[in-house]
Amino acid sequence: MTGPVRRPAGALALVAAVAGALVAVVLGFLTFGAQATVAPDGVPVAVAAPPEVAQRIAAHGGGQLEWTVATPAGARKLLEDKQVYGVLELGPGPSATVVTSGAVNPAGTQVAQQALTGAASALAGTPKQEVLHPVSLAGRTAPLAASALAWIGALVAGLAVTQLAKRTGRTLGAGARLLQITGAGVLITAVVAGFFALWDAALPLTTGVLGFVFLAATAFAAVQAGLLRLLGLRAMAVLGPLYLVAPAVAGQVPELLNPAYRTLLWSWTPFRFSAEGLRSLLQGVPDAPDVTTGVWVLGALLAAGLAVALWPGRSACEEAEPHAADRVVEVGVH
Description:
39% of the residues are buried. It is globular and about 80 Å long. The protein is of the alpha/beta class. The longest helix has 31 residues, at 137-167. Helix content is 63%, strand content 8%. Helix 5 runs parallel beside helix 7. Mean pLDDT is 85; it is low at 322-334.
């Protein structure tokens, strides 16, 4: 009987070193790389001013800003719809006002506010600052935090039920998977609500806010359950790194990201849909377009995840894995 092939210790050490380097590459790309390459490029802002003044303003900022000339009411409507990150209002007379909104991503708001203040100071002196939907520090943090907590909480729940089922030799049926997905959604929503109340009692815990958090949590749980069913523990190679995308990429606006990160990560990450939709709901702007977009995207993720997780029959991964509690498959010897 042939025994197991033993590899030299040096080869194993080299494989371990390569694995560590690959992990460092992934972490660097997903986290620090996105932050290290942040630079404004075409940040959308609006100006409400007489035409001749507006043209002078539009020349300010080069390629870093993308100006839209509008009436005061039109410019504020663009801000409410989150089509621009700030508004510069000039007049009557030498007065100037920089208008921002707490419902807009704070990274975009900060860049727009600095640029608009600089432009106003060059023409009319120090401008007044006006904030629509004022937001606290907790309000700025809560949307992205809720998205990240929903993802990691659902992931731990899905991984735990999968491993417990294997250790006890049980097969997870559709009912058990559905219970795990909905149970995780309910409990994570309760956890997020508790944190919101702890961080800032003024944060609204309305039906719309809690319903959106529940939708995000159950959508994440369903997608994770589907991948865990198909791939088993191998799914963690995908699901784990995705968690790192939340603070590094989803917390930014696309106009601040390097084009590579904008296309490869920001364009599809589910965290940005949940974070920006929740931001609008928390700040009392339920009609903002990103709320509707978030509901559609998260709803589609939920439907796709449930279809994979609850589809009748056993997946190829489940068929291939042993169900004995000691994880040993007996093989007859002839």
